[in-house]
Design brief:
- The complex is a heterodimer.
- Chain A is an alpha/beta fold.
- Chain A has 15 helices and 8 strands.
- Chain A has a domain of about 100 residues.
- An 8-stranded mixed β-sheet of chain A has the order 3-4-2-5-1-6-7-8, sandwiched between helices.
- The longest helix of chain A has about 35 residues.
- About 5% of the residues of chain A have low confidence.
- Chain B has a single domain, classed as Rossmann fold (3-Layer(aba) Sandwich), CATH 3.40.50.300.
- In chain B, strand 3 and strand 4 form a beta hairpin.
- The relative contact order of chain B is 0.17.
- The model of chain B has no long low-confidence stretch (mean pLDDT about 90).
- The chains are: A alpha/beta, B alpha/beta.
- Chains A and B meet through helix 7, helix 9, helix 11, helix 12 and helix 13 of A and helix 4, helix 5, helix 9, helix 11 and helix 12 of B.
Chain lengths: ~375, ~325
């Protein structure tokens, strides 16, 4: 199943709530694509140290690194190439400013502006914006046959999608003109409303902040057009036939509900969802759900063993029922990845994960 | 290696009036904070549980409950609210500036909404200001709330919130924001009133992030964490019979165990081997957290699927004498 997805789609965007294993799944998808002979890039953000070490990613920066030799050394057959890149948010935004600034003077003004420093590191959505921006750059460069984007670890998966729009709205010129004119106080009418607004803001924050914002917007005006065009193009990339989302989720009912909601919102936005991956599923070992014995704190070893073995088996059955239900409610293929026995943060673990992703059939 | 001790009993830090609970996304921060709130309410104390989320978990944790900005009774002695930024800003403006009529227009104005995203600190000031207000409310001579449990945002935003009072006072010395910042600082800095609590799981990324958060808060602010709650701690099934248990898991015959499980022995072994391996993984992160010098509390892994069931089981664990 996953092999077909890797074969058909050039860009795979791996999304889902935090803590469900997006980065591992992204790495496994990258390995699958490279093993199928493609020149592949995995763009990730802040992977676990052990996973980074397993992939030979320790200490790499915003430039792509070819990790194929390391994989081959560890006994993985890779006919294609696997490259990896860590997203650097500040660096990506700075480069966008450098590219679009009309003059070196303007560029320096923006980069030195206090509000810009604040926005680029703190504004919610900037991580997501930067990762879309980077994806767009890489996709248009044509350097890779396959790109796997591991989305930022936001709690709410949809943040990733609305972020570019939020930033675009932020940079929308008609709104910003209000601010630019605030300095000169040109015009009336419309500005009567904003005067009230500025008064409230001033009282709330102190005048310096308002002046900073005014300064920022004045220097930033020159790069607004290319910035919003850019955001629009990046958004359009999400809807291209070559792009597909892979929604990763955990096996618990609330996680499955979240994933289902995410998937239907994506579909509503006409964004393709190629698969939903249910990660870390406990596979039932017995045919029926056992009764849970009442011995969680027993003095006898056998009683405690019986309790915990049954408790895990019960979980397996409940998770399975919830996944079955999800499957009935969605048209998107659901891939079940059983909880692995090996350590996931190793090449062995990733190999195993990749094998399980490939083995899972359309269901 | 000497393991730091993990207590299941909740120490005095959990009895303070304001519990600020943070942690990396996905570690069970909402669950643990809700369990602390329910435990408090079950002891007859008027408790307010405050979520701060665009996708609140309260509806999963409590049956027949819909998270919303307004205070809603959840069960005996327990109320809950979802402190979303925009309604909080509307309320703040109307209370602080007494401009109720214009308030709605301003707060709903999209430019204002965008600006609040750009103004550093507004998303810290407003929620903490609301908590300050609720802590100060009285009914007769008694406080309106015996306890407020804040399910604070994840680590990054939580750090910004804790840095906020000092940062704001650096920028403005007088006026509404400065006054509010001093009040918030007084609350966060009062160790008889407030406990900062970090929730983590015993895994690499959460343990690292928790260490970094606590390190930075202790370095960059005058506040200190009172407790770390380790969530989803796997059970120690072997206990005093650990070597017998290990031996059987490795394949050594054991008359007692083999007889008990007979035909199902292989399945039981497979399950418990997995569990024991995960438990041992957890120990290394426990050792790392032990170095933080903040008391560690254990929230056991609950083998239930529905969040409401997990919550009741965790409350029961927390309430054990």
């Amino acid at each position: 199943m996953i092999d077909a997805l890797v074969e058909q789609q050039r860009i795979l965007i791996v999304g889902g709530s935090g803590g469900v294993g997006k980065t591992s799944i992204s790495a496994a998808l990258g390995i699958a694509a490279a093993q199928a002979g493609h020149k592949t890039l995995v763009l990730t953000i802040d992977p676990a140290r052990r996973l980074a070490a397993a992939l030979g990613l320790d200490g790499i920066g915003p430039e792509a690194v070819d990790i194929t030799p390391g994989l081959t050394e560890q006994g993985l057959e890779v006919p294609g190439e696997l490259h990896a890149m860590m997203l650097d948010v500040q660096n990506t935004l700075d480069r966008a400013v450098e590219r679009y600034a009309p003059s070196p003077r303007r560029r320096d003004q923006i980069l030195a502006n206090r509000l810009y420093r604040n926005i680029s590191t703190r504004l919610s959505g900037s991580q997501e914006y930067a990762s879309m921006q980077r994806l767009y750059e890489i996709a248009t460069s044509g350097e890779y046959d396959r790109i796997v984007l591991d989305t930022p670890p936001t709690t709410h998966a949809l943040d990733f999608l609305t972020a570019p729009e939020r930033l675009k709205a932020f940079f929308d010129s008609s709104l910003i003109k209000v601010f630019i004119n605030f300095g000169g106080r040109a015009g009336r009418g419309l500005f009567r409303v904003s005067d009230v607004l500025f008064k409230a803001l001033n009282r709330l924050t102190g005048a310096n902040v308002i002046r900073d914002i005014g300064d920022f917007f004045q220097v930033a005006e020159s790069i607004l057009e290319p910035f919003s065009e850019q955001a629009e193009q990046a958004q359009a990339l999400l809807r291209r036939p070559e792009t597909s989302f892979v929604v990763v989720t955990g096996p618990y009912p609330h996680q499955l509900d979240d994933a289902r909601e995410f998937q239907s919102k994506l579909s509503g936005m006409r964004i393709r969802v190629g698969a939903m991956v249910v990660n870390r599923w406990f596979v039932p070992l017995q045919s029926g759900k056992p009764d849970l014995p009442d011995a969680v704190a027993s003095a006898e070893l056998e009683d405690r063993m019986a309790y915990w073995a049954s408790a895990l088996e019960c979980q397996a059955h409940e998770q399975t029922a919830a996944i079955d239900q999800l499957e009935q409610r969605t048209e998107v293929p659901v891939i079940r990845v059983p909880e692995l026995e090996t350590d996931i943060h190793s090449i062995e673990g990733l190999k195993e994960l990749k094998a399980r992703l490939s083995a899972a059939s359309w269901s | 290696m000497v393991q730091p001790s993990l207590q299941t009993r909740l120490g005095p830090a959990f009895d303070r009036r304001f519990l600020f609970v943070t942690g990396k996304g996905g570690v069970g921060k909402s669950l643990v904070s809700a369990a602390l709130a329910v435990r408090s309410a079950q002891r007859g104390q008027r408790t307010l549980w405050v979520e701060m989320s665009e996708s609140p978990r309260g509806g999963y944790l409590f049956e027949d409950f819909r998270p919303q900005y307004d205070l809603v009774p959840v069960r005996d002695h327990l109320w809950a609210m979802n402190l979303r930024l925009q309604p909080a800003i509307e309320e703040y403006l109307s209370v602080a500036f007494k401009v109720p009529l214009v308030t709605r227009m301003i707060a709903r104005n999209s430019l204002f909404q965008i600006l609040t995203g750009a103004l550093p600190g507004l998303d810290s000031l407003i929620p903490l200001g609301k908590i300050w207000y609720e802590l100060g409310r009285t009914r007769g001579r008694r406080p309106y709330w015996d306890r407020i449990v804040l399910d604070a945002p994840a680590t990054g935003h939580a750090l910004a919130m804790l840095r906020f009072p000092a940062a704001a006072l650096d920028m403005v010395k007088s006026g509404n924001v400065a006054d509010r910042s001093r009040e918030i600082d007084a609350i966060l800095g009062d160790e008889t009133l407030t406990s900062l609590i970090a929730v983590t799981t015993l895994e690499e990324l959460p343990a690292d992030e928790t260490g970094e958060l606590i390190g930075r808060v202790h370095e960059e602010t005058p506040y200190r964490f009172a407790a770390v709650v380790c969530n989803s701690v796997f059970p120690e099934i072997g206990r005093d019979a650990q070597s017998r248990f290990d031996g059987w898991l490795q394949g050594r015959p054991d008359a007692g165990i083999d007889e008990r499980f007979s035909a199902a022995a292989d399945k039981v072994r497979k399950r418990l081997k997995w569990l024991e391996a995960r438990r041992q993984d957890q120990q290394r992160w426990l050792a790392q957290l032990g170095a933080l010098d903040v008391p560690l509390t254990r929230a056991p892994w609950i083998p239930a699927t529905r969040e409401a069931d997990v919550l009741s089981a965790l409350v029961e664990e927390f309430s054990r004498p």
